[in-house]
Design goal:
about 260 residues; mainly alpha; 14 helices
């Protein structure tokens, strides 16, 4: 059975093809704490494999706009057998939650890694929609079985055109433009959305809603908790606890 130091070294080799940090450099001690927690402890706790853990990490780093670290983990994702299309879809689907500017910066970082790795760009298109009208129709086909008319019902109080437009924009953008794309299955998209919302902080209502959605499309309680705990080294412990507290009732109900 490996000790913590051996586990850290093994995971650093698997993901980055480098040795774990020693005493070298100006902050060797800090790097040992960082790597020991993330790669020696968390990576060996729970059921998620390297591939899914790296998709979680790419999601968190994109949400945080932590571009130097994102660059390293895009490469680690490739090393963990994530396909370039999967990595791209993970970053693309962050846009409705963090905005387009931050997502564009993440895409630029990702493409630089792909180019340096000899991956031809552009990647194969994953769009399935054929008309603009399908954005709402196909989006609703994904949204309604999971979430019903919750958003539409909640925002009937908006003035003028916005009572209709805001729920429609959500359906068309989140579920139509992005969730109809191939490259990631619905189960993975929902799990990563939970992590993304937890990373943002202050979105606990949405965290709870998407934990419900993640469970409904086939994620287990353990997988959801594992993904959130894995994200803790990047988003911080307080946001982990906020997310767990937000979805405690749902997760207990599913036990």
């Amino acid at each position: 059975m490996m000790n913590r130091k051996e586990r850290t070294e093994q995971k650093m080799q698997e993901l980055f093809h480098i040795h774990a940090a020693g005493d070298e450099g100006s902050d060797g001690g800090f790097m040992q704490i960082l790597q020991g927690y993330i790669f020696g402890d968390v990576c060996y706790t729970g059921s998620l494999d390297n591939r899914m853990r790296e998709l979680v990490t790419v999601t968190v780093l994109t949400a945080l706009s932590a571009l130097p670290q994102l660059k390293a983990h895009v490469q680690a994702s490739l090393n963990a057998s994530c396909s370039p299309v999967e990595i791209r879809e993970v970053i693309y689907q962050c846009a409705p939650f963090i905005g387009f500017p931050k997502t564009l910066n993440a895409i630029s970082t990702m493409n630089k890694v792909f180019a340096d790795s000899g991956i031809s760009l552009p990647l194969p298109e994953q769009k399935t929609l054929k008309t603009d009208e399908e954005r709402y129709e196909k989006g609703l086909q994904i949204q309604a079985p999971i979430y019903g008319t919750e958003i539409k019902d909640r925002y009937t109080w908006l003035p003028g055109d916005f009572a209709e437009a805001v729920p429609r924009f959500l359906t068309e953008l989140c579920f139509g433009d992005f969730n109809t794309r191939t490259g990631l299955d619905g189960k993975t998209r929902e799990l990563l959305t939970v992590v993304l919302l937890a990373t943002l902080g202050g979105a606990e209502v949405q965290v709870k809603s998407h934990v419900y959605g993640a469970l409904k499309v086939g994620n287990t309680k353990e997988e959801i908790v594992c993904a959130l705990v894995h994200a803790s080294g990047y988003m911080g412990i307080p946001r982990l606890f906020n997310a767990l507290n937000a979805c405690k009732e749902l997760l207990e109900r599913e036990s």
